[in-house]
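Hi F.,

I've been meaning to write this up properly since the lab meeting, where we talked about keeping a consistent format for the predictions we share between groups. The idea is simple: the sequence comes first, exactly as it goes in, then the structure tokens exactly as they come out, then a line or two of notes. No screenshots and no reformatting. I'm using this chain as the first example so we have something concrete to point to.
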Amino acid sequence: MKFWCATAFMNTTELVQVSRLLDRAGYHGLMVSDHLCYPRELTSKYPYSPHADGRPIWEPGAAWPDPWVLIGAMSSVTTQLHFTTNVYIAGHRPILQVAKEVATAAVLTEGRVALGVGAGWMKEEYDLQGQDFGTRGKRLNEMIPALRELWKGGWVEWHGEHFDIPAMTLEPHPPTPVPIYTGGHTEAALQRAAKYADGWIGNAYPWDDAVTYIGRLRELLAQQDRDTSNFEIIAGVYARPSVEIYRRAGEELGITGMICMPWSVGNVNTGDRRNLDDVAAAYQPSIDRFAEEIVLPLQ
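Output, unedited:
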């Protein structure tokens, strides 16, 4: 079982030092969330909102640091920790920009990055970027194989329905293939994962919901006649953390990567700590305890 630490809504200034602590403690990876902005006039409904009006669960002033800048900074102070986006709204970015950013991160981390992508739900982000919200799913489906082609090195090109890229070099190219995971649990999102992705990133779910979504994903993978021996299923379950519940999640649900936040168990309050000693004093007890009691026994 791999353990991926989610970092949404944490203080940006603390994350580089937190990544260093996770690296030392033996966690597999760290996940970086993504949004471009929060429009004052927001009419799009957040699909996971507990509110009747569909508003997001975060305040307009919540920070969403650029994932690739942040991953670059964190990779410079770690040696083993892997990184993925959870998830990057690639569809409203130019494909060559995405290819260049991820390839550069792959080179600098010596292959410790994966690209987690989703179609997104906020139309306003697409409008601000001049991209068509209505075709975002189809364009993302094509972007996935196109990125793999662009990352091969040497002369590369792509000619499809939504992207037409003439022969060019795009360097540096990744030293090894970059895994591409897709997120979301709608039928379209699960179909995308089964057909195009190297893995799926879900959310944290009640056990029965996890059974439903992962069960449907496995049905779709079987329909695609996929070899799933290396297919990653990354999700969380709403349960008190224990070796038993996570082992069960792996054996019964097929989860290969567990989403976790060790500091939430320790009730650590995020702040504006920039010094390693201050961050360590706040986070290290929870990080180390979770690693000793759960992460290491399950590796």
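Notes:
The first helix runs from residue 12 to 25.
The longest strand covers residues 199-205.

If this format works for you, I'll send the rest the same way.

G.
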